[in-house]
Design a protein that fits this description.
The protein is 29% helix and 21% strand. It is an alpha/beta fold. Helix 1 crosses helix 3 (38-50), helix 5 (114-125) packs across helix 12 (439-452) and helix 6 crosses helix 12. The two termini are 37 Å apart. The structure holds flavin-adenine dinucleotide.
């Protein structure tokens, strides 16, 4: 990947000096070099441009594997290594102010991932002013900068299909609305089942998609072999194709959203952790960032995996827990398959990026509740074994990098969208396991609800208190639930 000093200089002059953000904006250190020596060169360039010492910038996280392990070699380790047993929770923080400074916002959004930014953009589009977004970390540091980028319109339940088909339609027109190319690539999305159980889920997906007017096709073996030539297609009992599904590279989507928010006057603050939420009686009235209080007419929690702990700052409960998921990129190769793929029984998903890397991941049984972003050898080995079993010709490709991110897993893995039932003016956009696919609909329909008070029928089933009311949604066609 060719990154020039001029490119770094331009970004620094535009205000970006965080090395993780520079990595995401330029791809610096994401090639076969694994950051050696690119990140030293990056620090030297930063030092030359800013006059600060090279050491003061640090470097992005080094990722295993350091050497050129192939998929086949990693698959051989699957029997030898076990998933990590990790467990940690985030303690709610309360910092009573000592010297109070007060600012104001009409809407204050906690979390600047794709949900927070999309909502801010949709609110601004509807004419809301004084929107402020606060994020504890760096831009794209949450799941929105660490995902598989797959977008699909339909599932096995009408509720999920209603929401996500709306979202997929919005993805198609989003570049025009933002004025920035989000690089949405409608290359198709195949969902596949290898057992009677997962084949029955595929049949159900076809039925529900047709009822909801979503274009879908059941693929026979021959067609499957044509669309996915690398796949051992004899394994498939059933496969369905969403021609309109595809992928959206998160770096492009997040860049477009950030720029569109800024040009509409949304105030975005990264490295700004919300440490408290003020209650006035039964309503949420403001935020605390250390000793700064932001009075707000309305507060939105869009804090991804941290949403339950952020909710405790307002003294309310949000069901669910953080769930760690890992993904992996293989070295670039010639185009070997076009559509995105999800294999239900294996909880496996993948696609080939426009620069030729095969990016994907799978879920591995074990305790995935840790909030670390380090990646694990057992997960890598199990993912590699799935690849070798289903696409044997990938076995000789080298593994470029592996990473981890966190989602907020709700009881039924569906999003939690709407007003919190126990606190007025506290809105929630959380519980997203498919938060890239669902972001345009989440932002659109929540903005409509906040501005007009009207809860659209496509988000009503995903109400925050559905677990309490015994209204969980049974959805079998998601790859996290198997
Ligand atoms: C490996 C992996 C693969 C995935 N693949 C896909 C896929 O293919 N398709 C798909 O649709 N989805 C996928 N997902 C899920 C998707 O990435 C998430 O659902 C989505 O990014 C959630 O967006 P978000 O804005 O809600 O959360 P995040 O992007 O996590 O943003 C939440 C933000 O809140 C901030 N925050 C937390 N606490 C505070 C605080 N106290 N104050 C201020 N800010 C705070 C965090 O810093 C963070 O930036 C994947 C996820 C992972 C990890």
């Amino acid at each position: 990947m060719d990154v020039t000093v001029a490119e770094i200089r331009r970004l620094v002059e535009a205000g970006t000096t965080h090395v993780e953000e520079l990595k995401r904006l330029t791809g610096c250190g994401m090639g076969p070099c694994q950051g050696f020596p690119c990140w030293d060169l990056l620090a030297a360039a930063l030092s030359a441009v800013t006059g600060r010492t090279a050491d003061s910038f640090g470097h992005p996280s080094y990722r295993a594997p350091r050497g050129a392990l192939t998929v086949g070699q990693a698959a051989g380790l699957a029997e030898l290594v076990q998933p990590e047993k990790a467990c940690s929770t985030v303690a709610a923080q309360q910092h009573p102010a000592t010297k109070i400074r007060t600012q104001k916002a009409a809407v204050a959004i906690i979390g600047g991932g794709i949900q927070g930014l999309m909502l801010a953009f949709c609110l601004a589009e509807r004419g809301v002013r004084d929107i402020r977004v606060f994020d504890a970390g760096y831009w794209q540091g949450g799941a929105s900068g660490r995902n598989g980028t797959l977008v699909r319109p339909a599932f096995s339940s009408p509720e999920w299909t209603g929401l996500f088909s709306h979202s997929q339609r919005l993805w198609r027109g989003l570049s025009r609305r933002l004025g920035h190319n989000v690089m949405y690539s409608q290359r198709g999305y195949v969902t596949m089942g290898e057992s009677d159980r997962t084949a029955a889920i595929c049949d159900q997906v076809v039925r529900v998609s047709r009822e909801c007017g979503v274009p879908i096709r059941a693929l026979g073996r021959e067609e499957l072999a044509e669309r996915l030539p690398t796949l051992d297609h004899n394994r498939a009992k059933a496969a369905v194709m969403f021609e309109e599904g595809g992928v959206v590279p998160h770096h492009a989507a997040m860049k477009g959203l950030r720029a569109a928010c800024q040009s509409r006057g949304v105030d975005l603050s990264y490295q700004s952790r919300v440490t408290g939420i003020d209650r006035q009686g039964d309503r949420a009235a403001g935020l605390w960032l250390g000793d700064v209080r932001i009075a707000a007419d309305c507060i939105v929690i869009a804090a991804g995996a941290h949403s339950p702990s952020v909710a405790t700052l307002a003294g309310v409960e949000l069901e669910g827990y953080p769930w760690r998921i890992e993904a992996c990129a293989l070295e670039p190769t010639r185009p070997v398959f076009d559509p995105a793929v999800a294999m239900l029984g294996r909880t496996l998903y993948m696609h080939q990026t426009s620069r030729g890397e095969i990016v994907g991941g799978c879920e591995v049984a074990g305790d995935s509740s840790g909030l670390t972003v380090t990646s694990d050898l057992p997960v890598l080995a199990h993912y590699a074994r799935h690849l070798v079993e289903t696409m044997p010709c990938l076995a000789d490709l080298r593994i470029l990098r592996q990473w981890a991110g966190h989602i907020h897993a709700s009881e039924d893995f569906g999003p939690l969208l709407g007003l919190h039932p126990d606190c007025r003016d506290l809105w929630i956009s959380a519980g997203w396991s498919y938060g890239i696919a669902g972001a345009p609909a989440g932002g659109d329909l929540l903005a409509k609800a906040i501005v007009s008070g009207e809860i659209d029928s496509r988000i009503a089933p995903f109400a925050v208190d559905r677990k309490r009311r015994g209204k969980l949604i049974a959805e079998g066609a998601i790859v996290v639930s198997h």
